[in-house]
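Input record, target 12 of the design panel.
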């Protein structure tokens, strides 16, 4: 099974990009200065784990215009990968559809006009896709290789309430239906290790997503950064984080249940060392990825193995 994904046991983002564009493509993370309804209009202060930069700690400098952010990051990236010439413009920080559609259109147009840009990825929330924004996304989808990244985190409404997510699972399902009706690619984000969630609950999230018409998936490890409600909970001993072995095993649990055509855009989250409180092992990303490869090998399994049994009426539990 490995040979179909460049000698990996799962459908990698790199394999997808090379298959489509014929060469390495880099994703350029941008901060367009947005906010989030969970912070501004609803007054909840954001999700309990969200950093002051709206999960855009690795994105460009928001004080710079989009074109300057883009060129600065590309120059830095080309020192690491001198041959890279094609890019996905990624609106990452906060909620990137939370503005007037005309304003959004101008930002997206600027990003698409940058040298080498071959696609656009927009990170947002299921409850921030009103019809005018959906119409704009529909138009963009006809012009470029568009992905909409939808923050879900879990299918369990009780957990969504606990983490102050501000929407329920039904809202996510409605957003997926609306995006797919326009043939827009959807990449949900989920977080493994959320407070109170068991490994069985995380597998339930995987099984539910595997039954939906999604094209991508991003996995994140729950981690604690400074100046968040989660940091206060962690300091009071109210939460227990997964260790690396538990996380690796759960990642493979999830991917075994995903259809083989779903592109795994990310396998673990990270944060700048200066704001990360726990767990320290997420900073050693390469070691985490290697451990995931070893777990696939140990189990002699691959992405979609248990999804295939589900399609035949079997149980993935």
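The sequence produced for target 12 reads:
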């Amino acid at each position: 099974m490995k040979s179909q994904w460049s000698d990996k046991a799962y459908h990698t983002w790199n394999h997808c990009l090379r298959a489509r564009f014929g060469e390495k493509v880099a994703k350029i993370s941008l901060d367009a200065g947005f906010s989030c309804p969970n912070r501004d209009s609803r007054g909840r202060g954001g999700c309990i784990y969200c950093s002051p930069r709206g999960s855009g700690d690795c994105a460009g400098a928001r004080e710079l215009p989009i074109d300057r952010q883009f060129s600065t990051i590309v120059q830095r990236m080309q020192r690491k990968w001198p041959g890279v010439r094609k890019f996905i413009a990624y609106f990452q920080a906060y909620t990137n559809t939370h503005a007037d559609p005309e304003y959004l259109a101008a930002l997206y147009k600027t990003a698409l006009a940058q040298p080498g840009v071959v696609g656009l990825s927009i990170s947002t929330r299921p409850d921030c896709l009103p019809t005018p924004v959906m119409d704009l996304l529909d138009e963009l989808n006809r012009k470029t290789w568009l992905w909409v990244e939808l923050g879900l985190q879990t299918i369990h409404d009780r957990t969504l309430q606990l983490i102050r997510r501000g929407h329920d699972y039904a809202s996510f399902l409605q957003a997926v239906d609306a995006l797919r009706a326009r043939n827009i690619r959807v990449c949900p984000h989920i977080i493994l290790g959320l407070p109170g969630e068991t490994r069985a609950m995380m597998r339930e999230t995987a099984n539910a997503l595997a039954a939906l018409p999604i094209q991508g998936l991003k996995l994140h490890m729950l981690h604690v950064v400074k100046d968040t409600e989660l940091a206060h909970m962690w300091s009071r001993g109210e939460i227990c984080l997964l260790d690396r072995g538990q996380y690796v095993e759960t990642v493979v649990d999830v991917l075994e249940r995903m259809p083989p055509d779903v592109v795994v855009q990310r396998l673990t989250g990270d944060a700048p060392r200066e704001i990360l409180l726990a767990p320290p092992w997420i900073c050693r990303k390469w070691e985490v990825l290697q451990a995931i490869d070893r777990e696939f090998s140990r189990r002699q399994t691959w992405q979609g193995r248990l999804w295939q049994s589900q399609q035949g009426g079997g149980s993935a539990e």
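The longest strand covers residues 145-153.
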